[in-house]
Amino acid sequence: MNFHQRFVPGLAIASYIVGDDKTGDAVVIDPSRDVEFFVTYAREHDLHIRHIIETHVHADFVSGSRELKARLNDEPAIHCSGYGGDDWTQPFADQHLREGDEIKVGQLRFEFLHVPGHTPEHIAITLYDESRSKETPWLLFSGDFLFVGDVGRPDLLGEEQKKELAHQLYESVFQRFSKLPDITEVFPAHGAGSLCGKAIGSRRSSTVGYERLYNGSLQRKPEQKWVDDLLDEMPLSPPYFKRMKRVNKEGPTIVGPELPGRKRFSAKEVHERVCDDCLILDVRSKEAFAAAHIPNAINIPLAQNLATWAGWVLPYDRPTLVIIDDPHDMPELTTQLLRVGFDDIRGYLEGGIGSWETAGFELETLHTMSVHQLDRRRKTEKQLTILDVRTDSEWNAGHIDNAQHIHGGTLPERLEEVPQSKPIAVICGSGYRASIASSFLRRSGRENVTNVLGGMSAWKAAGLPTV
Q1: How far out from the chain centre does Cα 58 lie?
Q2: pTM here?
Q3: How far apart are CA 333 and CA 336, in angstroms?
Q4: Which residues contact 13 (CB under 8 A, 6 or more apart)?
């Protein structure tokens, strides 16, 4: 058996390609939208992708099933869940799977188990290698039903459905999952860092038996107690999750092999807004952005988690124009944005911020300060607002006395809670999220905004007090 797990950091997506050694036929499970990897892997290993399977309608990234099928001349068949009714039936599927169905490639047999809870239609996939055993499944592709150390969260569809889904998840865990043998290996659709679970472990695979023993969410309790514990302190989910559900249910737009965002715009063109109504996305480092940037630009530094933060804070109804240091990084940036559904990427500023500077167009700066400066200012400036944009769990673990707390991802909807005329010092874990938040505050008209470099990591390292 040819088996490969492909892991995408940041969004923490795990996809799989599984092929039969003799026939060369292969199956891809839960592909992300950037499908070139699967095409290349199959070619380099003499595999022919015959089938594409989705475990569920994903919420945190755009599915690559339609994209992969298009890249392979529509030859593979797409298989999606047949459960959940019209609201969850994906019309682009060639087959809607139910328990009892199977897919065979050579000696490999894929069977399906309906495990609702994370979503109503969710299926898990058991893989049998008949050259070894026809009765015992070797692998379980658990999607977002089961993770290493956790189970999928049931609250992504809103308050009305979360309790019903949580009870369905209880049944899936303690009745349906109980039929699987301990030795079956578990391969989920996400690893640590994904927001599809509450406490996903860092390892990317496990076994059924190990999870039964040590996964806290698999320990049997009275049903209501289990549901209450599962839903307790669930982290916020990004608002773009609901949009991803709609996109993936209906079927994403096919991008094609040529990435968008290749057009170069001169400083004069950008200044004259030739890219009509474009949002200026500056992906340079927080330090570079602070030193000089185009007025009203949003700063999300290019890193592995850019896609997540873009989904949190960027509007989907605006085309995007990029400020980037090195144009060779555009494919990486574009790929990250496409993974979360930002398709209208017009291009980038040719010559970077330097071309804007030499053209003599207006620039803005963003104040920065060290944690020591913040400590001195908070003792002497009564008007200073310290805005902590970390998560609830980070805040609860220790924060600066009298700070204001707003999760950075919710800032676009909660701007009215931030003082308009008072000085604001924005702090996060290290300064990355604070730079994003600061750029939003400046764009909203708040002029006296400062990013605290080093964030709470530096604050604690300096031995400064928290509550």
Answers
A1: 10
A2: 0.95
A3: 5
A4: 7, 30, 32, 60, 61, 189, 190, 194, 339
Q: In the chain, where are the structural domains located?
A: 2-250, 263-358, 367-461
Chain position carrying tokens 């472990």: 201
Please state which CATH number belongs to domain 367-461. Answer: 3.40.250.10
What residues pair up with 206 in beta bridges, in sequence order? Answer: 186
Which residue's structure tokens are 């938040």? 437
Ranges under pLDDT 70 in the chain: none
Contact 49, 226 (CB under 8 A): no
* Residue 143 and residue 174 in contact, taking contact as beta carbons nearer than 8 Å: no
d(CA 61, CA 63): 6
Two tokens, residue 318: 């605006």
Residues 6+ apart with CB under 8 A from 377: 369, 384, 425
Hey, what's the torsion of the CAs at 407, 410, 413, 415, to 10 degrees? 30
CATH classification for the domain delimited by 2-250, as one of 1.10.10.10, 3.90.400.10, 3.40.462.10, 3.60.15.10: 3.60.15.10
Say what the pLDDT of residue 171 is: 97
Q: What pLDDT, in 10s, does the model give residues 399-428?
A: 999 999 999 999 999 999 999 999 999 999
> pLDDT tens digits, residue range 423-459?
999 999 999 999 999 999 999 999 999 999 999 999 9
Name the CATH architecture for the domain at 263-358. 3-Layer(aba) Sandwich (3.40)
- CA angle (16 as vertex; 14, 19 as ends), nearest 5: 170
For position 276, what pLDDT does the model report?
A: 77
Nearest Cα residue to 91 out of 108, 72, 78, 104? 78
Model pLDDT, residue 273: 79
Strands (E) located in 145-232: 146-147, 150-151, 185-188, 206-207
